[in-house]
Amino acid sequence: MIVIEGCAVATVDANGTEHADGHVVISGDRIVAVGAGPWTGTEDVTRVDGRGCLATPGLVNTHHHLYQWATRGYAQQEILFGWLKELYPVWARIDAGTVHAAAAAGLAQLALTGCTTSTDHHYVFPRGAGDLLAAEIDAAAAVGLRFHPCRGSMDLSEKDGGLPPDSVVEETDAALAATKEAIDRFHDPAPGAMVRIAVAPCSPFSVTPRLMREAADLARSEGVRLHTHLAETVEEERYCREVHGCTPVEYAERLGWLGEDVWLAHAVHLDAPAVARLAATGTGVAHCPSSNGRLGAGIAPVRDLLDARVPVGLGVDGAASQEAGELGAELRQALYLARLRGGPAALTARESLALGTIGGARCLGRDDELGSLEPGKLADVALWRLDGLGHAGIEDPVAALVFGPAAPLRRLLVGGRTVVRDGQLSTVDVETVAADLARVARGLR
Ligand SMILES: [Zn+2]
Q1: CA nearest 248: which of 259, 237, 262?
Q2: CB-based burial of residue 52 (10 Å sphere; 0-12 exposed, 13-18 middle, 19+ buried)?
């Protein structure tokens, strides 16, 4: 058993329960008690001194492309389509070694910024590149994060009216078969799972309607979730109107891609009927504020989505369009973007923390065991240091975390296991991970 005590606690439960001085008790991989004051149990426990810290649920990253850690810094002034056009040929050269090194780096960065569960949306499978999904799952196990790799795919190349070149797309049937195989090999439906697969064709301009439809059928017959990019840019909306005669959300609905088992990356360009359809169907949204800023894509209507009760989580998005890859920093980015759109009351610090925790857990269909500090839930806990230069003296610890600079971690626990201790990863050697990353990035250039 582990007892964290002496810290402020923001549980992010349904009542927003907080303790100015409280404790969190962990047994095995579960939380068994959360409360005010010191813990009064008599069992033999490992104590973690939380004085000067804030305990929150571990952050949940709902959108990423980990392989892009090896292709950061390209196409710095491009919109999405120009950025993709520059990067597709580089991505055509990735292999299992690239993906392993990039995933280890990206996941290490996530862990150091408070993330305990991450998705990855991998949709580039060049022929002969090796076992890319196994490579990233192996990296996630090494870093120690809970991992939801989304088996992506593209089957609509330039010659058929899509955006990507032939070199990075798959045949439709091959993509579906490989997705089924990924579920069979890696998906763990059991409570407390460390690996779950989702089905994730890439985007309207790189995937055929047939692949979208059959991927949805496959996911539903296998009982796994569905993820894709949608409504990210005005150019995508124009493409959908020209090619399909409707908005991206109408297109998704036509293909069976709205529902409680679906979460969509971005959802920036939504009209009021689109927000209403997401709400009515229970479709979730992965909000990626820094990436949207980097590509100048626009500001997602997060306030409208929350008012309509759409599940909204946060994502760092791929590191080629968001070179920092820090999930903790997205709490502040989300707050700023919402306020640039809707004024200073558009999103509170606590709402932002909820996006990064329970909101993300809802997107992944795991809000019954992730996303808040409550007895019975998995012991995925971030213990943030707020006693240093960046945060000391701010009375409200949640405001310190969200408005302040990136907070260092005293501990990060995933299923009760220590992944970060006093700002350092306990699981992998960061110098080695960075050196591997530099090597594969050079190789791709
Ligand atoms: Zn993305």
Answers
A1: 237
A2: middle
The span from the CA of 249 to the CA of 270, in Å, is 8
Alpha-carbon distance 395 to 397, whole Å? 6
- What is the per-residue pLDDT for 15? 98
Ligand 1 center from residue 45 Cα (angstroms): 42
Q: What angle do CA 2, 378, 13 make, to 5 degrees?
A: 100
* 123 Cα: distance to centroid of ligand 1 (angstroms): 10
CA gyration radius for the chain? 21
Contacts of 261 (CB under 8 A, 6+ apart): 219, 220, 225, 226, 365
Distance CA 122, CA 157 (A): 17
- The rounded Å distance from CA 16 to ligand 1 centre is 31
Structure tokens at 326: 């820090």
**What is the DSSP-derived secondary structure letter of residue 424?**
E
Type of residue numbered 165: P
Question: 253-273, pLDDT tens digit by residue?
Answer: 999 999 999 999 999 999 999
List residues, by chain if needed, whose CB lies under 5 Å from ion ligand 1. 317
Kindly report, residue by residue over 146-180, the tens digit of the pLDDT.
999 999 999 999 999 999 999 999 999 999 999 99
